Amino acid sequence: MLLDVLRKRLEAFGALPQEDVAFLNALSLQSRLVKAGADIIREGTNPEDVHLVISGLACRYKTLQNGKRAIVAYLLPGDFCDLHVFILQAMDHSISALAECIVVKLPRATILSMLERPAVARLLLMATLVDEATLREWVTNIGQRPASERIAHLFCELYLRMRVIDAVKDHTFELPITQSELADTVGLSIVHVNKSLRKLRAANAVTFKGGRLVITDIELLKKLGGFKSNYLHLDDVLPSLVLDSGATTRPNG
Amino acid sequence: MLLDVLRKRLEAFGALPQEDVAFLNALSLQSRLVKAGADIIREGTNPEDVHLVISGLACRYKTLQNGKRAIVAYLLPGDFCDLHVFILQAMDHSISALAECIVVKLPRATILSMLERPAVARLLLMATLVDEATLREWVTNIGQRPASERIAHLFCELYLRMRVIDAVKDHTFELPITQSELADTVGLSIVHVNKSLRKLRAANAVTFKGGRLVITDIELLKKLGGFKSNYLHLDDVLPSLVLDSGATTRPNG
DNA sequence: CGTACTATTGATAGATATCAACGCTGGTGG
DNA sequence: CCACCAGCGTTGATATCTATCAATAGTACG
Fold first, then answer.
1. Which residue is nearest to nucleotide C19 (CA to C1')?
2. Residues of A in contact with B70 (CB under 8 A)
3. How far is CA A230 from CA A141, B66, B79, B88, B89, in A?
4. Nearest C-alpha of chain A: how many angstroms from B91?
5. What is the pLDDT of residue A245?
6. How far from A189 is each of A73, A196, B93, B103, B143, CA to CA, in Å?
């Protein structure tokens, strides 16, 4: 089912009643294929439907008057693009596909029927609040950490988020972005990102190459990035995710 | 009434029915005085009540393992500290009073009764979404703009937010923070903040001294900071706030 | 086989941080 | 009342970090 990925994402925060799962499965969906590099939603518009990423990778971004671009969030499978169209008038940022994406369009009526289900509504709200917490962490990361640590922290976060949706295999996951996009994410120049990545690789922490991230030593990476996972609020539900899964043995992990 | 400031904040996004205003006025409130520098809520706790700032100035902040501090939001009168305690288990950041604050404690039951009123619930959700949009803007600001522009942008934002709660008199408002706190907000060193402030003053854009901000030329300040107010989503409701109020004439403003 | 885009590297320039010193202010205790 | 102290603001000198520039190479793609 297309919405499996949404269920997986929501259940990371808490179990979902069987009837709600059935409800999700019964929805008829209209999906759309978006090519890498294409915009899914553009700033200034007010989308008619709500968009949900099913596969691929997308990002929220802002373009500055000086021509620079800031990537302010990554959207993984199961993430909503624009759940706020109900409340706010116009998009204050754009959303673009970093890799080819499958996106489903959920009519507003569908969303409203989802919100009528308390368990679903609660988990949706929770996901929104975690998005906000993640932004606070990004402000902290970009504002206070030097280049290599900044990148290490981002990689830790993405690693955990990818694990939630079962996208990590053998300490490796697809991260189909260029160094240029990474630079726009962490607020560094391309060249400096390149050199910082080399440092992280030399430290035997992580290798990023060809749109693929190989975590060599997650504990080291966490230490380098000063990473604490509490802001993702997975602790209570999925303690196994919070603890490391690396080569080091952790029987209760 | 203590909650006047909340009403003012909410009505910045849309009118509130008379009966909802009456409802707010009828609430019995327990207020608390917090000294400057004291924590209102600390990371790791799960507050019993929801806190709302009535007067003064507070901030959300995070402390890093390397001892640095990041200020990730300012809380003005009418802002909630921890509306998310219903959903998330523990605070992932702390909240501290920058100046002496009056804070009211709203029992969870009170919040629930507020959420039962559609107009109030809608405006609360809207305020939450604007908080998130503001964080995206901060990520952009800190990540992409050089020092002076970064500070100019922050000042523009605070100027608009202060106007919403009628805290701007004569192009001037109280901003009771130190340069050190400003540095932790924009991700710069104290010394560099000091020098950047001097530049902004020399440009005749803004003067920050003694916890007070005097806007000399708001249009210039906006230009320096590359400021676009759309992310605050005041456009539809309070267009007069969005356009300039400065010496330059703008007949259709 | 060009033509982009991406990655990489070294050299240099520019921005920001750190260090150090000083003055100012408000409070505090003698 | 005065001496002292702590926090804040200010300034200049220096160190470090990061950006920019330039060149090269690899890769995908038409």
1. B191
2. 139-140, 143-144
3. 14, 17, 24, 11, 10
4. 8
5. 39
6. 18, 10, 29, 43, 11
Distance from CA(B39) to C1'(C26), angstroms, rounded: 23
| Gap from B195 CA to C18 C1', Å | 15
**Single-letter residue type at B124:** L
State the pTM of this model. 0.93
Which chain A residues have a beta carbon less than 8 Å from that of B193? none
Mean pLDDT of chain B: 91
Based on DSSP, count helices (H) and strands (E) in chain A, helices before strands.
9, 10
pLDDT score recorded for residue A15: 87
Handedness of CA B238, B239, B244, B245 (dihedral sign): negative
User: Which residue from A minimizes the CA distance to B72?
Assistant: A136
- Three-state secondary-structure class, residue A8: helix
State the alpha helices, DSSP H only, in chain A: 4-11, 18-26, 108-115, 118-144, 147-164, 179-186, 190-202, 218-225, 239-242
Give the residue ranges of chain B where pLDDT is below 70.
235-253
- Does the CB of A140 have a partner CB in chain B at under 8 Å? yes
Q: Is the pLDDT higher at A123 or at A202?
A: A202
Tell whether A65 lies on the interface with B, counting CB pairs under 8 A: yes
pLDDT at B240: 55
Nucleotides of C under 7 A from a protein CB: 5-11, 15-20
Query: Three-state SS for A81?
Result: coil
Contact A119, B75 (CB under 8 A): no
Cα separation, B211 vs B18, whole angstroms: 37
Yes or no: say if A60 and B136 are a contact pair by the CB < 8 Å rule.
yes
DSSP-assigned beta bridge partners for residue A71? A61
The closest of B98, B102, B7 to B51, measured between CA atoms, is B102
Which 72-101 residues of chain B touch chain A by CB within 8 A? Answer: 72-73, 84, 87-90, 92-93
- What is the DSSP secondary structure assignment for residue A80, as one 8-state letter? B
Under 8 Å CB-to-CB from B42, ≥6 apart: which residues? Answer: B91, B94
Query: CA-to-CA distance for B207 and B191, rounded, in angstroms?
Result: 17
B172 DSSP assignment:
E
Q: Is B132–A128 a contact, with Cβ atoms under 8 angstroms apart? A: yes
**pLDDT higher than 60, residue A218:** yes
CB A79 within 8 A of CB A135: no
- How crowded is residue A246: how many other Cβ atoms within 10 Å of its Cβ? 17
Cα distance between residue B185 and residue B174, in whole Å: 17
Q: Are B21 and B120 in contact (CB under 8 A)?
A: no
Instruction: Fill in the amino acid letter for B48.
Output: E
Out of A125, A140, A236, the one facing B64 most closely (by C-beta) is A140
